[in-house]
Amino acid sequence: MINRFKFSLVCALAWIAILSVQAQDKVLRLQESYALARQNHPLIKQHELIRKTAQFSVENAAKGHLPQVAILGQATYQSAVTEFRLPIAIPGVEFPSISKDQYKVYGEVNQTIYDGGAVRTQIALHKQNAVVESEKLEVELYKLNERINQIFFGILMLDEQLKQNALLKADIELGIKKIQAFIGNGTAFKSSGDALKAEWLKTLQRATELAANRKAFLGMLGLLVGQDLSESTILEKPATISLAGDISRPELRLFDYQRQCLDIQDQLLKVRNRPKLNFFFQGGYGRPALNILNNGFDLYYITGIRLSWSISGIYTLKNDRALIASNREAIQLQQAVFSYNTNLSLKQQNADLIKLQKLLESDNEIIALRESVKTTAAAQLENGVINTSDYLREVSAEDQARVNRILHEIQLLMSIYNVRTTLGQRIDQ
């Protein structure tokens, strides 16, 4: 009996523990949102496609070191063939005549001995092209950070506004309690209490509106991060971070990788005009074979080393190099435009930071003054010195001052992280 009781108690405690864990609200951090949005985006799968494409291209290029096999055949008819004639006829001696129709089927194997670095350069070019394509993908994925900033800090602002709305509701409820006492004593009109109740209902409407907006923003954030975010999800307010360092965006790395790709293309131009040396073996069957005096079909083979040097690439070498130089200038121009626009954005963002910092400094002072006035107004309302309209005016003024501080505080925090995103630096740096 005792053992059964212990077992039941353990099960009950375990079940309570499970429920308590499930009841815990999910906490989502900004850095975690960046990572989840990146993992959830459909473009992330393209990284694997780029890797496989590069692997296949490199493997194909590397096969240039393998023996190259070709099978050929030809049938020809010649207008004239080699003939053997002597000045005088020799009895019993007759030279064979060669047929004008000739046939040949043969196979040839070529093994590269020296290709001037063509295969090696082609492999390097395929790898570098993959790096460029991968970095282009990183540029697109990095844009997610800006969208995460807008939605994440938008939810934080709604959270703060909901808290402030609850404080306003409490202040109005305090006024309602005081005015109801006067109405009960016959020292105040019922309309005074109705005015406060109307403002109280407005706070309920405002809370409903803010909660609906928060739910919509959470839905958008959930789609980006690939998770089902409930209304109980808590967004952790990120800490203020320093704003030091140079620009380190994926766009800058892309420009560098593109220039490296052009360097390899320039090297490929040099390789193309180098001599090539290879070993070859040719074997076949035809008429005539290697023995020209034999007009019948026969087997034959030839083997040796072949040197080839094509100089036709020299004709276009100057223009090819000019084209590469033009592409370099285009990349340099793109980088200059990117740096210009980025620095322009940073200048504007830094100006906003300074403005918001100054506004926050005055917000605290304004709130302190408004709170003092509201406290005095509450005492005056209780003593019948002022009416409900005067009290509501002061309550609303303090509420607006606090809303302004919330707005400026979240905007400042968002601006800080926008600057960090524009610089291209991680939060943990």
TrEMBL record:
It is found in: Cell outer membrane. One of its GO terms (molecular function) is porin activity. One of its GO terms (cellular component) is efflux pump complex. SUPFAM superfamilies: Outer membrane efflux proteins (OEP). Keywords: Cell outer membrane, Membrane, Signal, Transmembrane, Transmembrane beta strand. Transmembrane segments: none annotated. It comes from the Bacteria. Residues 1-23 form the signal peptide. The keyword Transmembrane applies. Its main location: membrane. This is TolC family protein.
